[in-house]
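Standup, Tuesday
Yesterday: got the pipeline producing structure tokens again.
Today: sanity-check two examples.
Blockers: none.

Example 1:
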Amino acid sequence: MKPKTLFDKIWDSHVVRSIADGPDVLYIDRHYIHEVTSPQAFNGLKERGIPVFRPAKTLATADHNIPTKDQHLQIRDELSRNQVEKLNENCLKYGIELFGLNHSKNGIVHVIGPELGYTLPGMTIVCGDSHTSTHGAFGTIAFGVGTTEVEMVLATQCILQPKPKKMKITVNGNLHKGVTSKDIIMHIISEISASGATGYFVEYCGSAIKSLSMEARMTICNMSIEMGARGGLIAPDEITFEYLRELPSIPGIDNINVSISDWKKLGSDPEAIFDRELEFKADSIKPMITYGTNPGMGMAIDGSIPLSDVKNGKASVSFIKSLDYMGFKPGMKLLGHQVDYVFIGSCTNGRIEDFRAFAQIIKGRKKAANVTALIVPGSKKVEEQLASEGLLETFKNAGFEVRQPGCSSCLAMNDDKIPAGKYAVSTSNRNFEGRQGPGARTLLASPLTAAAAAITGVITDPRNYISEKIS
């Protein structure tokens, strides 16, 4: 039998039908929806007079533009309120499980899916959100889809999809102190560019990847889309299985050990062929920060902004435009540059381990007076963990306010916007122009780097404040 990649094994087992010279009809095991990209899809079903084909396979939450303060009150923004209400109505009408605003299981869709046991190895998963790639950390084929495709999955539980090419990215070696999974993926993107993996589905391998926790692996897979990839995945192993064993329950699974025996078969065969392979050394990675307006414009925190974005030494118009937007110059160092906001949260870094890392630097110190901090847990469960572990008290003593769960300032669809011209060190995934608010200037970084900026008020190397490695 021909050796197969993990991606091929999952994809091929879910193909309902292949269209000659066209896409595959792919069966979808789990469909996540939220309030922003689902209303139009449900309207399409209504206009055609058809039901949701398999409502038990879809899970809904409100997350993108819900407020992160006073969630018990009526949502003030009319558009946001209407979207949340429509999600409630549609889920009730079609029998879809909903963890809406104020539900004890509410949270960002890519945070609650794994923590509630809905994301499992070997699945195909889609959502009307580009960062669906997060779920690939469990050894799944997970990717974002458009609203038309959301409707397609609701109606048929299948999707028309061309099969991507396969890329293998190996990271071997040991990470240095202060280097996290966020730094790994930002380093990779800075090396291959924001379009370097376009057309590929990426499998992450190597000793550095295998050493990561599940939450750290989710961060890696989450940002696969930021280098143009269709998605990313990591083969399940004992770290995966232990994470799943510790969940209070897994919907649809009575005996976790029986399932694990099947999941252990998931992995790329030794002789499997990838369309492209890249390798990185973990010990060459430093804490990272972005300086431009796409995630590929990143550098080591103690480095300098490149003189050019092209090998021939001539800076492109877009490169200069990006630096002008950010108020930076080629060759400039960022250490010591004043910041105005710090945001920790999002589906990239809104899990409990991220806040533990943030707290490691914050504990016993005070927030810088010039910094406004947005600390937003990724789910109600994370919010509860912050309280039970004493982190809320740590943040309060340091002068920080913790918000309620939601996507918040990652994309600024609610009131959590960064003002024009202000600098924000953000643990989210995108630094596009206006992503965090019209005119906002975003510098992507890890929770450790965000914490160092929060207490100093300037871009600071987090290695100055920590004594041990955190993933």
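Example 2:
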Amino acid sequence: MNRRSCDKVIVVSVIILIVIGLISVYSATSVLPSVKAKFSDKGSMIYLKKQIFTLFLGIILMLILMFLPEEKLKKITLPLLILSFILLILVFTPLGVSAGGAKRWIRIPPNVFQPSELAKLAMVFFLAWFLSKANYKKDSIRDFLIPISVMGVFQAIFIKQPDFGAFLTIGILTFTILFIRGTNLKYLFVTLLLCLPIVYYLAKEPYRWRRILSFIDPWADPQGSGFQLVQSLIALGSGGLIGQGLGEGKQKLAFLPEIHTDFIFAHIGEEMGFVGAVAVVSLFLIISIRGLNIAMRQSDEFKSLLATGVTLLISFQALINFAVVTGLAPTKGLPLPFISYGGSSLLVNLMAVGVLLNLSRQKDSIFLRESEIDKPKRVYRYWRK
């Protein structure tokens, strides 16, 4: 198999996002030790050190997946799916770690890990594998219910934790990939209708309902349920065009909760301004475009769906985070890929990039093979199939 160098544009874009993330995490957490006494004896570098440690692990995993032989990408699908399921179950054992009323983590010294992040990637692998099988039929109700059932099992565990953000993310991913594969639209539409009462029931949980109400009008209760969104908007607004300068932001002084994780984009807007925020959005847009371009180049159905899936995994999480921080969606606990503090997200997103870079090295594509260029009818038959 002829190979070429990986997509350097994606590599550079990810590196820039990681650097922005490290700078932002340090800036946002440099004052937290004085706010959170339990870290007061460890110094202001504790968050940055943990993030750098996770970054090194993530780079190793990224390189492993990047240079993994293509035929083995498909073979790791079921082991990855089973591992994700086992880790999700371990959350409810003594290994599980609780925080903020949720039990979403397991302790893996020297840090904790959130299995739901790995489950999202595992679901992408499973969908690419199952939907590319030779005997898969787009109009078969059985072939539709199998991926929906796997999604449902994961979602049931997410709700038990609870983790509504992961619940929605894996649902959106699954339905989008099924739609792209050409699944019978009647099945998708009926399933979505059946899911609406479930989503409504879950949304009516008191704390989730307060988030929805605060999303509609955060200024109605600026010191209560709308506090986080109001402070996020203040951070973005006070940044102006070029920001207040690195380290000069005020919202990190215990005004904006979770500023180093879910709301780090607001911190970037405050310290780096509109220019910095647009740069971050543009980098994710570049990664999305390049990723989908890689997917279109693949001559194999599995690799095309896998490239599409990992691109959507990164893009959807970034898009939801941007929407939450800017008040375009209700507050949800989803980190910004490559930037937010949090080892689980960084590890899994670097793994996703490793897969994408692996597929970008694929030279045997319907757009590049001379035999296909010389025979346009074969190309037409491939796309029609």
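Quick observation on example 2: The beta strands are 96-99, 102-108, 111-113. The two ends are 24 Å apart (CA to CA).
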